Amino acid sequence: MEKLYSTGEFAKIAGVTLRTIRYYDKIGLLKPTKILDNGYRKYCNNDLITLQKILSLKELGFSLEEIYPLIQDNDKDSFKKSIVLQTNLINQKIQKLTALKESLKATEKILTKNEIAWDKIIELIKLSSIKEEIINHYINAKNLETRITLHDTFSINKQGWFPWLFEQIDFSTVYRLLELGCGNGKLWQYNSYNLRNREIFLSDISNGMLEKVKQNLGNDYNYLNIDCQNIPFKNNYFDTIIANHVIFYLKNPHLGLSEITRVLKKSGTFYCSTYSKNHMKEISDIVKNFDERIDLSSISLAEHFGLENGKEILSNYFSFVDIKKYEDELIINESQPLIDYILSCHGNQNEYLLNCLKDFKFYIDNLIKQSNGIKITKDAGLFICIK
């Protein structure tokens, strides 16, 4: 029979305060394994795994809200994955701290000469946001991978979005290509063309994402940290530009499209993907039925720039605009990948779901059982534009 510990015993074994354990219990971050009839709370050895994850991730800079979805499982496999994650994040932190230390030493040498190098001050400020940068990169990369995985796993169209998108690009006209918002670089895993005599620039607003892409793809590409509302290239530089699910994130799409057409050559091609208002609509309905307060996105991205209004917007900048639709749908028969997807969204869902993930999983499991899988509409496409 597994040994159970009182709250006090558990806190003492773990080397944390009783107040900490009680607080984590109160907010639902670490609930006891058993609550006896008399109200006494009992913890088991597996709860130590959850506590280790909480304390380590908190030390690395994660907020308690960000920790919730990372600690739902405490079996051996999930613990092993968590240890690998923690190790990778610590290695990144060491690299950043080493760079900060070297910059501090260089700045100290300059100061001994009674000079102030403002470029060094700026460098120190940037390097000092170590925790925030590492955590933001990890969360952004994980959320992106979670969303891609759901589509890869449960899509009816087995070709897959990225191979299909790659197939639409006319590489016979490509000599200088820029991808805006390359994300994890998955589009380029499917390259089947000769890079010789071609310049391919992969850009993203996240330096951390670019570092990961460079590790995956190597030195055949150029990597740039770019905001596509301010592209640092001269006029008429590229013959091809790609923006895969990017334009609807821009605060000012017109500013972004003006920059894109500025750096695109005459007769150059702009490949621009988006989706409609119906895309993945069932997922929003599912969470609304569970808790009507939940909004998975603070704004409707498709209303900002979608299949319904995209051609009209793009026609202000391009002489020719065509659209190709990607035919697909999802049949989801596992609850956890769908829950992970929902938690990765940009809305307020974590505020209402993190304290009741077990109830939410039970709800999703029942929906899958009732319908023999949850059918999700996919309505995405690609605008092909000629300047």
From TrEMBL:
SUPFAM superfamilies referenced in this protein's UniProt entry, alphabetically: Putative DNA-binding domain, S-adenosyl-L-methionine-dependent methyltransferases
Under the heading Pfam families, the entry gives:
MerR_1, Methyltransf_11
InterPro entries, per database record: DNA-bd_dom_put_sf, MerR-type_HTH_dom, MerR_fam, Methyltransf_11, SAM-dependent_MTases_sf
Which CDD domains does this chain map to?
Answer: AdoMet_MTases (cd02440), HTH_TipAL-Mta (cd01106)
Question: Does this entry carry the keyword DNA-binding?
Answer: yes
Q: What are the entry keywords?
A: DNA-binding
* SMART domains according to UniProt: HTH_MERR
Q: Which residues form the HTH merR-type domain?
A: 4-73
**What Gene Ontology terms describe what this protein does at the molecular function level?**
DNA binding; DNA-binding transcription factor activity; S-adenosylmethionine-dependent methyltransferase activity
Name the record gives this protein = DNA-binding transcriptional regulator, MerR family
Superkingdom, taxonomy of origin: Bacteria
